[in-house]
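Milestone M4 deliverable, item 7.
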Amino acid sequence: MRTYKVAIVGTGGIAAVHADNLARTSGRAELVAACDVDQVRLDAFSDQHGIAGRYRSLTELLAGAKPDVVHLCTPPMMHIDQAIECLEAGVNVLSEKPPALSLADFDRLEAAQAKGGAEFSCVFQHRFGDASAAARKLIGDAGFGRPLVARCDTLWYRPDAYWDVPWRGTWDAEGGGPTMGHGIHQFDLLLHLLGPWDEVTAVASRQARATSTEDLSAALVRFANGAVATVTNSLLSPRETSDIRIDCEFATVELSHLYGYGTDNWTVTAAPGHGDTVTAAWEAEPLERRSGHSAQFLAMYDALDAGGPLPAGADSARQTLEFAAAIYASAFTGKPVRRGEIVPGHPFYAGMDGGGLGSRVLDSTEPAATATV
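Output delivered:
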């Protein structure tokens, strides 16, 4: 069990979450360096977390600190280029979401990983609680039965002042609205639990907020295993909650929380006549560890120890990013989108705005079905 040298790039609010959770990894990580273009912010963050290595550029950090893993806590538009620089230098990357602003940008990772021999992983911390591991194992097995219907809601609230930060709410900087920046954690967990999706039919709109992207999206999704789900991503909801419900043949699995969960946030309800089997299967699983960044960090270190692929690696992160792209493509063209359809040459491969189509639809009173790709 190695202790890994870790560096954090970007010292804003989410960086503090990373630093605090690194301190909970029981000595598996040593936070050796931080990087920010703002010297005052860099020094304040480094003083607070006892970080000796302080750098104003990623290039200098990679050369001077020689970390094993770099955590990217920068604004979304910076993630992909910084990830590629790290990977080409042979340094593993853990990037905050979204991993890239488009599938075209994300697909540049493959060559970078091959060149440097390092691996990419995305922060999808909801996958890593014990209860989500138990749910993933039991959904579809003989005791719970196959999944039939589901819903996944990210119902959050952000006032107009939230978009005072210049890079928020723009296609060029964030890649989208709540579909890319907020709901992505919850529907990533849904995909983790249910497996590959087949088809998405969606709507997106700007209902009330001072943003150039959507502030609401809703999708109807069919999965490869036959399950059908609804997915809603909102920044308009005063009573905030994050919810997943999956109805299987013999059990309903529910998760209700806000920004993280423990076992007590999960509920498992058996169908009549299946109570003993369902309860015994759920209670037989280890259910102690909460979701969160530290749980993902520890899983990453275990994978590095074993020489195996990183959890929440490039392949599964791409499935989640493709799902977001499909929501936008369907919402702004008025047509269903199938998995694998958004390829080079497709307008939504190069950006979630579809080359300006999304902006035109959101700015217009005409329905998306009248737009052309």
